[in-house]
Amino acid sequence: MQKAPLNWLKYASLTGCLLSANVWSASSTAVPDGITLFNFEQGFDLSSVITNDAKAKLLNKNGSTQLLVETGIRSGAPGVTIKRPQGSWDLNNYYHVKMDITNAGEHPARIIFKVGDPADGMEAWQMEIRFDLAPGETKTVSDDIITTPWRFTKPLNLKAMRAAPGEAKSDLSAIEQVKITINYPSNEHKLLIDNIRATNPVRWVEPDGFLPFVDRFGQYKHAHWPGKTLSVDDLKQQAQEEKRALKAQPGPAEFNKYGGWKNGPKLTASGFFRVEKYDGAWWFVDPNGRLFWSHGVGVVNMGTAITGITDREDYFEWLPAKDSEFAQFYGKAGRASHGYYKTLPERETYNFTASNLYQKYGQNWRDEFAEVTHARLRSWGMNTLGVASDKQLITDGITPYTETVWVRGTKKIEASKGYWGKFHDVFDPSFKRQLKKALSNREHTIDDPYLLGFFVENELSWGAEGSLAVATLQSPADQPAKIEFINDLKQKYKNIALLNQKWGTQHSSWQDLLITTQAPNQSKAWDDISAFYKKIVQTYFSTVRSELKKIAPNALYLGCRLAWANSDTVIRTAAEYSDVISMNKYQYNVQNVGLPKGVDKPILIGEFHFGSLDRGALHLGVVEAKSQSHRAELYTEYLDSALLNPYIVGTHWFQYAEQPPTGRGDGENYNVGIVDLADKPFPELVKSIKEVGYRFYDFRSEAAANDKLVEPKKPKKLNTIQIDEDAHTRSN
Predict the structure, then answer these.
(1) 290 has which bridge partners?
(2) Which string of b and e fits 267-297 if b means at least 16 CB within 10 Å?
(3) Predicted local distance difference test score (pLDDT) of residue 103
(4) Stretch (H or E) spanning 113
């Protein structure tokens, strides 16, 4: 019998949960507990497996048939796409897709499992999960294909969120394939795959009464959880209690004023931060000459919960009057990089972070935020403000910080691709001009002893080896990089006939090559493609270093925060020109994060995090945790793996405060904060941060003294000639 729709507010107050179970069903239609997508038993057609730099065959073991996939190292994403031979699946009734998988090889594997159809681009995959698998390890991996274990009977078409409650991320009615790949491998791998299935039937609920679903503090409204802010009095009481706690525990006794190791070895003091290898491990050295390991957090500012309200006004139960004292928290923003707001040239926003701080601290909220934040970080055993942190905080002279430089307004390589946009044309004068302009805006920091160093840009789209050179050839004739490339080819080949002979092309002239936008056969042209790719990379890094050192000769160049995985050329060139190589590493540990053979430089982890859905979040983020307690456990494991890695000189959590459930500009609405939307610390995570923060100097130095540092294995040199743009997408 069909049951009546549930009143959302009544349900939330009675259950105190995120509608995870026992929801009124809108239909009595029975749904099987699960359906099999692929089990590889008798009758499976191996021709439905499409390989990319991989081999696949069926393997019968102990009466069970599995798919054996053997991958190479010539692609950024070797693996298989498995297509349903006929028709498609309708997965609208299910919450999870699961797979049994074994690492049958000799090396740890970083694996990506996707479900769906990528025809509409990188954001069309219905599910994507990334996980690590040790040699010999077997796992059942699963991820949700919808945000919540319940679905609306009628779509509300909620906009501008990476994950929206009660709705699928995209169309689940015609799923035709799954994809399993290795993420930028350094070694060949063997995987055994079995029993891919959809499980966990969803509950269907009526959407009546769901809107609005965000309360006056920016929190998800239809749930309760420990520590949720319910009133302004809650905010003020928490502020008073925390101030007493911070005063009682001001921070590790072994920290000097910079957060360096006060009682550790005394090295040469330069008056600025620098790096040095000491006792077999890389370290920062603080201005006083003390060893310094950067235990930090990024995006420490008062705008992390700025969210768009344009076209979504009915999502919010409280948006203050435009002539009220809260009018200061409204704003305007331009076109977003991704998602719904990419389609609009401008959107109106509301800043729930600042609004909550104002309600918590009153008129002096900005100064209170700064004072409490510095005190929190020191009390937690943290010592660095990471990427994109508040200007007031970094100029207070209290906590060491990184300066972030964004180079905007340059000409781009038109045919290049990447998650955050096209790559700079480093041969166009606009690149150096805009770089100088961006650096000139940071002159206030250059003689500051609290400056750890400069990040210049973030997560650039280097692509696979050779990809930027191929994109250059596919760009228009007036592309400066293309003109540079063809001039190099003229010097090498002298006449077009010799190039045609090498490349297997039929260009009538150099002008014909300049005009064409068709890429050559990459194998035949590889020597020239590879050489120009290296020239692009070297020109980028050498230009940045030269201009940065002119402005700030004593400052460390911390690199460009490499993301995903990067070619041998990028890593080696970054090591040549950067003082520290920065990498954003979203994985469970960094034990095996190292550098190519012959390269010895310090590494700074610029971003990592773990998230879960048990405190009102709608998206767990890039790396999954099962709960807040599990987030805390994973933090300790990650930090310990970093401290035991002799290359790593610090880790920066991303980010300080929670993203709003309605999403930032590009739709990200992750559980990533150390503090929540109402500026309350997550107690489980903070406990782990403090546990590590009060011991990491002794832990790392004792490991070095006892020869217990774990040297990462050196990868084979990649010779990637297969350009696979899908390998470079960010997890959604």
Answers:
(1) 266
(2) beeeebbbbeeeeebbbbbbbbbbbbbbbbb
(3) 96
(4) strand 109-116
Neighbours of 113 (CB within 10 A): 23
Q: What is the pLDDT of residue 152?
A: 94
Q: Dig out the tokens for 460 from the structure.
A: 């650039």
CA-wise closest residue to 147 among 202, 189, 188, 102: 202
| Residue 672, pLDDT above cutoff 90 | yes
Spell out the domain ranges in the chain: 8-205, 235-406+428-462+557-705
φ, ψ of residue 189 to 5 degrees: the values are -135, 155
Q: What is the C-alpha end-to-end distance of the chain, expressed in Å? A: 38
CB atoms within 10 A of CB 721: 16
Rounded to the nearest 10°, the torsion over CA 306, 311, 317, 320 is 60
pLDDT at position 118 is 62
Q: Hey, what CATH topology would domain 8-205 get?
A: Jelly Rolls (2.60.120)
Query: How large is the angle between the packed helices 568-577 and 526-551, nearest 10 degrees?
Result: 20
Cα–Cα distance between 604 and 584 in angstroms, integer?
Answer: 8
Beta strands 581-584 and 281-285, pairing class: unpaired
Closest CA to 304 of 594, 555, 662: 662
Task: For the chain, give the number of residues.
Answer: 732
CATH placement of domain 235-406+428-462+557-705: 3.20.20.80
Count other Cβ atoms within 10 Å, centred on residue 335: 12
* pLDDT tens digits, 277-287: 999 999 999 99
Q: Evaluate if residue 729 carries a pLDDT over 70.
A: no
Q: In whole angstroms, what is the distance from residue 489 CA to residue 486 CA?
A: 5
DSSP label of 718: P
Predicted confidence (pLDDT) at residue 508 exceeds the cutoff of 80: yes
Strands 603-607 vs 648-653: parallel, antiparallel or unpaired: parallel
Phi, psi angles (nearest 5°) of residue 635 = -60, -50
Measure the CA dihedral 145/196/190/608, to 10°: 20
pLDDT classification of 573: cutoffs 50, 70, 90: very high
State both tokens at 115.
């479900």
Decide if 8-205 and 235-406+428-462+557-705 have a common fold.
no
Tokens for 91, please give them: 């997965």
Tell me: the pLDDT tens digits for 410-424?
Answer: 999 999 988 889 999
Structure tokens at 44: 């499976």
Tokens at residue 608, please?
Answer: 């990592």
Question: pLDDT tens for residues 434-451?
Answer: 999 999 988 778 889 999
Among residues 573, 566, 563, 562, which one has the least CA distance to residue 599? 573
Q: Does residue 723 surpass a pLDDT of 50?
A: no
DSSP letter string, 617-681: -SB--SSB-SSHHHHHHHHHHHHHHHHTSTTEEEEEES-SBPPPTT-STT---B---SB-TTS-B
Q: Please give the helix or strand (H or E) that residue 391 lies within, else none.
A: helix 391-394
- What is the C-alpha to C-alpha distance for residues 193 and 101, in angstroms, rounded to an integer? 5
The H or E element that residue 234 is part of is helix 232-248
Q: By three-state DSSP, how is residue 115 classified?
A: strand
Helix (H) / strand (E) element for 707: namely none
Could you give the CA distance from residue 185 to residue 199 in angstroms, rounded to a whole number?
Answer: 30
Do the Cβ atoms of 670 and 659 come closer than 8 Å?
yes
Torsional sign, CA 210, 212, 217, 218: positive
DSSP 411-455: -B-TT---TT-PPB-TTSHHHHHHHHHHHHTTGGGTT-TTEEEEE
